[in-house]
Every structure is written in C-alpha cells, then in structure tokens.
Amino acid sequence: MKLKTMLGAFGMGLSFSATAFALDVNEETPILESGADHYDYLVYAMTWQPTYCLLNACKTTPRSEFYTHGIWPYLKTTPSSQNRHPDSCTQSIGCTQDTACALTEANIADAKAIPGFTQIVTDNPEGLMKHEWQKHGTCYGGSSLDYFKDFINLRTFATFDEHAFGALIGVEGGTTLSDIQTLFPPNTSYRCATYKNEQYLFEVFYLLNKDRTGAPYIDQSLQIGTACDPARKIVIPTAPS
Q: Which residues belong to the signal peptide in this entry (predicted)?
C-alpha cells in the first residue's frame, strides 16, 4: 500500500485551482485498489453554497441550498488520524489496471443527463466532476455513471429539518453548533470556515454504510477540514440578492 500525505493549506471546496484541491492538514490518503473491500464507509458531502460563494468568486448567484460536493469512500479514524480515505484508486471500472483514469467528455455528458443531477450540483460542474471522479469515484467500486447516479440516489438520505434550518438562515449574530446539530441526524459531521472574523457553516457530511443502502454509519472522531468551534456562534448566510 502506498501512502500519500501532505501538510498544506485548507482547500475551499468547489473551485478548481490547485489551492482549492490541496489536502487538509490532517488528511491521509492511502492509494488502494477500487472497491468497497478497501474502505469502511461513505461520506456524502454537501456544501452550503452561499458560504462557498462568500469565500470564492462565484460567476452566478447561488441558491440558498446545500449543493452536493461528492461521495467519498472513507476509512475508520484512528488515534493518530481523523481524516483517512483512499485516493485515486487503481483497477476501477473503465480504467486501466495501474492508473486512476480521467473522466471523459462522454462520461460527463452521460452523468449530466441523469434526471435531477444538474439541480443538486454547482453551475458548470465539469471541473468538479473530473476532480471528484479521479480522487474519490475511482475508489467507489463502480463505473463513473454508477458513481454520479448515486449523487441522486444517496441524496435522499441526506435529510434534516429544513423548516427549522430555514429559520436560521441569515440570522444576525448566528446560532450555536448545538442548535444546528439538533436539526441533523447523528451520523453527520460539520465543517466551518472563517470570514472577516466570523464563523460560517460551510459543509455537512453524512456518514453512510458502504453498501449504498443509505443506512447510517457512525465514526464519532471524523473531522474533515476545519472543525466548527462550539464556543463561537455560526453564521448561515443567505444567498446574495
């Protein structure tokens, strides 16, 4: 097993620069063969798009919604690592034996034709799709079409109290992490970002069984990216008008 680690800047998620795709400081990425035998569970990652656009220059005005970032095969945390996942796996369906293959234009067109797909991802998602497939999808154990179909299929298990959450959007001064957590199931983890000395909700991660049934998985030590500070208020911004 090859092991790849990096101490780098925190990547801001969905843009397509080298900085945005840098590894988190605690991220550990062993290079393994594709397939569920080589990972423990799945992370369904959703980005609060108004926060993303606050941190990055979005070309279009986002909706006040969670956009699907990706599905990430993950490894159980250890005492020394809270963020472990396979990366750029070999022997994936549609790839050569020894390399993690790139997504083709035909693959992208097929995925974008999946009913509902373009409604849950960022505008012009081609760069995101290429990155997510090569880094995470190649480890999933299916074809690229299988992977992107599950953006839709598994989204149905990414549930939360939408009415109560909506009441927290745009609240001046923000809310508490504990108040946010009451609106989501226990198989979730959170990522925050700081902007102008305020803490913003950035991403929510749903931990799911690797059998793709949507059954919850618990890994209480998981922390992807910057943890939300429970001692500080968290702002959930609304989309700019």
A: 1-22
Token pair 């992977």 is found at: 147
Token pair for 41: 């569970």
Helix axes 144-153 and 105-112, enclosed angle (nearest 10): 20
CB atoms within 10 A of CB 100: 20
Asked if residue 54 is part of any domain, the answer here is yes
Residue 179 has pLDDT above 90, yes or no: yes
CATH number for the domain spanning 26: value is 3.90.730.10
In a domain, residue 58? The reply is yes
Domain that holds residue 111: 2-235
Q: Is residue 240 part of a domain?
A: no
Per-residue pLDDT tens over the stretch 191-218: 999 999 999 999 999 999 999 999 999 9
For the chain, how many structural domains are there in total? 1
pLDDT at 9 over 60: no
- Give domain status of residue 241, yes or no: no
Give every CB contact of residue 148 below 8 A, 6+ residues apart in sequence.
111, 114, 117, 129, 133, 137
Tell me the C-alpha distance between 144 and 167, whole Å.
37
Distance CA 33, CA 39 (A): 10
Q: 29 pLDDT band (50/70/90 cuts)?
A: confident
DSSP 230: T
Picking from 41, 130, 151, the residue whose alpha carbon sits closest to that of residue 85 is 41
Q: What is the DSSP string of 158-191?
A: ----HHHHHTTTT-TT-B-HHHHHTTS-SSEEEE
